[in-house]
């Protein structure tokens, strides 16, 4: 396993170097982190789109495309995401390592990347004004398209109702109603504030000369710094006084039933959290799970049934696709499987299968091109510093007693049904 070298480049700017000889490419990832806020979400989404389509030196997509080709077909992935109640804007570039070509691809790549982020296309104090309306329309279509995937939509609606007054319900893509009032001048002002106050993480993963890469990054990644936002830890504990029941009718043939639970477990409590992770897998982590075998297969109740665990916010979601008139029976059967977890009605085979499934998924992900840097970033942004071996050790040590202990505070919060 590779060791990461962390270097503090500036106030709120961290560089992580991950030496990895498994691949012939270098992965350069840059993350901007803030507390997620409804009033900023749309601007951050729009900003990521505008920065990726033009800069001072490369003012058009054609110019950017030509430069990417010059850099031996370097690929670029820019977007926004949500990690708990943190908003992330990310830039990811995959380029060939210098040792396989006769030019300084890495140094040229960093110059290009910094130009995109640090020297955007500004006209009359506005950020790329000629493209603003087009990018607004693209973002509008992207937000509207969320409703087309009914399974994902039901999941989002359950979370929105469950976390109604919590920042976790903020849509990281933004809101259509905010788009109309955003001007290019406002976007430029927001860009300056965003760059100055966001926490910035730069990760380089690949086969490189560490001293040279560190010096290049120190020389190039020079951002204006101000008062860096303090990132808040999510509230993950909540006692439920009354379960919310929400039904939405969109005339669907197949119903989408989503049940949201509060697990009240902190991920920093490693033994309990990784026991909960195994419990989640036993309940709905795949073909080995209770929901799959007992509700879907034996009872033929669901088209699909699975669970997902939100690490930072302390939420467990159960997703299922059912016949419209099977609502009551499906809810009853799903609740029984949750109760079985709480009372320890779990076999050793179920525990072993769940642990194997998680361990295989972790190892497989870690061996992918971006797997190691994403693993390290996930640890870093969570304020933890576990190695893969340490995590595997926690999972291996999970037993029935620790699983029951981890799920005893699981509380049903919201039942959402889309039909």
UniProtKB/TrEMBL annotation:
Domain Peptidase M16 C-terminal, first and last residues per copy: 182-357
Gene3D superfamilies: Metalloenzyme, LuxS/M16 peptidase-like
Pfam family membership, one: Peptidase_M16_C
InterPro entries: Metalloenz_LuxS/M16 (IPR011249), MPP/UQCRC_Complex (IPR050361), Peptidase_M16_C (IPR007863)
PANTHER family assigned to the protein according to its UniProt record, in alphabetical order: INACTIVE METALLOPROTEASE YMFF-RELATED, METALLOPROTEASE
NCBIfam families referenced in this protein's UniProt entry, alphabetically: YfmF_fam
Protein name (Swiss-Prot/TrEMBL): Pitrilysin family protein
